[in-house]
Amino acid sequence: MFSFFISMEANWSLLLQIFFCLALLLGQAKPDPDPLQDYCIADNQSPLFTNGVPCIDPNNAKPSHFTTSVLSKPTSASTSQFGFNGTVINTVDLPGLNTLGMTMSRIDIAPKGSVPPHSHPRASEVTICLKGQLQVGFVDTSNRLYQQALRPGDSFVFPKGLLHFLYNPDSRVPVLLVSGFSSQKPGTQFASRAAFTSIPDIPDEVLKNAFKITNQDVIRIRRSLGG
Ligand SMILES: *[C@@H]1O[C@H](CO)[C@@H](O)[C@H](O)[C@H]1NC(C)=O
Q1: Per residue in 66-92, pLDDT tens?
Q2: Ligand 1 center–CA 86 separation, angstroms
Q3: Which domains, and CATH codes, for the chain?
Q4: Is residue 85 lining ligand 1, measured as CB closer than 6 Å?
Q5: Of 1, 38, 91, 224, which residue is the least packed, with the fewest Cβ within 10 Å?
Q6: pTM of the full structure
Q7: How many whole angstroms separate alpha carbon 213 and alpha carbon 219?
């Protein structure tokens, strides 16, 4: 009986430890802060800098503040640098989005085009392929690649902050996809651009060592990325 209570106690302290670890971990992965009101229609003219955009007087809210057609417009992908183009909904297009902790985007990818490896520091992303064939993948922090081929109707999720890509392997049919994000402003950082076309440049010595390439390679890659 006595030993039963001892082991119960040990179990409880283990459970408590697990609980506190989980609480700590979850606390680190917070989405955008919760709004303290029903909505906060973005006042895009406000000169204030805040975390998000200040709100207009809620009495002036209108149904049109909660709707947008920006994702209905196709974008021209074939002439762009990497063969993709797209639109992310922001608080100017959709003022009612402000503080709700989410947004959406539409991406068009030309045949053989791609959205090169990039990350969103503030959001996880769930994507749905609407047209064409879509190859997607992300690399986790142990450097393992998770890759999938998507057909229209298929979805894939990219965990927050991890490097990922989207690629159209077809040589004739363009891809159309829509993505949802767990932040109103996910932020996007392309690996190749961040490394080779930052302003000012990352020192050549650092890039030569990071990619095991020569001075000439650094110059050539910078030039071909338009840096
Ligand atoms: C993206 O598409 C829009 C609309 O067609 C176009 O105006 C813009 O120039 C395109 N951007 C690039 C980088 O090609």
Answers
A1: 999 999 999 999 999 999 999 999 999
A2: 8
A3: 58-187 (2.60.120.10), 194-224 (no CATH)
A4: yes
A5: 1
A6: 0.84
A7: 10
